[in-house]
Design a protein that fits this description.
Layout: H1 4-11, H2 13-20, E1 36-38, E2 44-49, E3 55-59, E4 64-67, E5 72-77, H3 80-89, H4 103-121, H5 125-136, H6 143-155, E6 163-165, E7 173-174, H7 184-194, H8 215-219
Parallel strand pairs: 5-7
Antiparallel strand pairs: 1-6, 2-3, 3-4, 4-5
Helix pairs in contact: 1-2, 3-6
Length: 293
């Protein structure tokens, strides 16, 4: 992608070095840990990464999305400029506060996080940040304003910028969510299981006999109108609607693999032991070991 700020980073090694560490925007890390795509089908172009295995993408030529190596993803800026503005201004974004907590609490939380970052990076953090901002032509902004912008960007992730594993169709968690999101297969089957029963399931004869098609097997079916035999003359097999891990066996259902209940989505990253800079996790209640992205 061509963008004035990206071109500055590509042509000025000192700026690129500062952006990569400690601000976590390394233009030489553009390979994500797995193949991904947007649920909307819009274009997705990697532009940088960080030392934990996460990747920054430009979506459809505009908003910037961050995807971690642990299955989280969300917008962090309306464009490259805003994303860099936030990453440089909030290199140690606190997950415990939100804009509505008020200026005093936000500033205190940011100061505490940055003090810890200085212990690892060194006392030149503020000077190096000022140098990088000046080199990129970015203004100095209050952490309160940057946090508000970060949260506003994250709120725009759904529905157009939800990130999917390209192979399985499983959606990444939104950055403010703590639970894994279901695969496309799981979501479709779950919706079918919760749907009202077919008319013949309430009683009387139906295409499958006096008992009708009751329970999840009937409501999740992909058959047509009453009396029809379904897609290509077949009924969906019960195994396809029970959500068991393994292959789905039913007409119109892709062969995907469901994650067993309680299975972890955590993937090994390339991170170091130092505190992780902000990776745009709007919201509170970060999971243990992931307070800073």
């Amino acid at each position: 992608m061509t963008h004035p700020l990206l071109e500055l980073l590509r042509t000025r090694p000192r700026l690129a070095e500062l952006a990569a560490y400690p601000f976590g925007f390394d233009i030489h890390r553009t390979e994500h840990c797995e193949d991904v795509r947007l649920a909307s089908g819009a274009s997705l172009e990697p532009i940088a990464g960080d030392d934990t295995g996460g990747t920054y993408f430009v979506c459809d030529g505009g908003p910037v999305l961050y995807a971690s190596s642990e299955g989280d993803a969300g917008l962090i800026g309306a464009g490259v400029r805003e994303a860099l503005d936030i990453l440089i201004g909030l290199p140690a974004c606190p997950a415990s506060v939100a804009p509505e907590d008020g200026e005093e609490r936000v500033l205190a939380a940011v100061a505490e996080e940055e003090e810890e970052l200085r212990e690892w990076y060194g006392p030149t953090l503020d000077a190096d940040r000022a140098e990088l901002r000046a080199g990129l032509g970015l203004p100095e902004r209050s952490p309160v304003e940057l946090l508000a912008r970060l949260h506003a960007a994250g709120a725009r992730t759904e529905p157009d910028f939800v990130l999917l594993n390209a192979r399985e169709g499983r959606a990444y968690r939104l950055m403010h969510d703590d639970e894994p999101r279901p695969s496309v297969r799981d979501a479709v089957l779950a919706a079918g299981c919760e749907a009202p029963a077919r008319p013949w399931a309430a009683g009387g004869a139906g295409p499958d006999g006096p008992e009708g098609v009751d329970g999840p097997e009937g409501s999740a079916g992909v058959d047509g109108p009453e009396g029809s035999a379904g897609v290509n003359g077949h009924r969906p097999r019960p195994a396809a609607v029970r959500g068991a891990p393994g292959r789905a066996r039913g007409p119109g259902v892709g062969v995907l693999h469901a994650r067993p209940p309680g299975a972890s989505r955590r993937r090994p990253g390339r991170g170091t032991a130092r505190p992780r800079p902000c990776r745009g996790r709007p919201g509170r209640g970060a999971r243990s070991g992931g307070a800073r992205r």
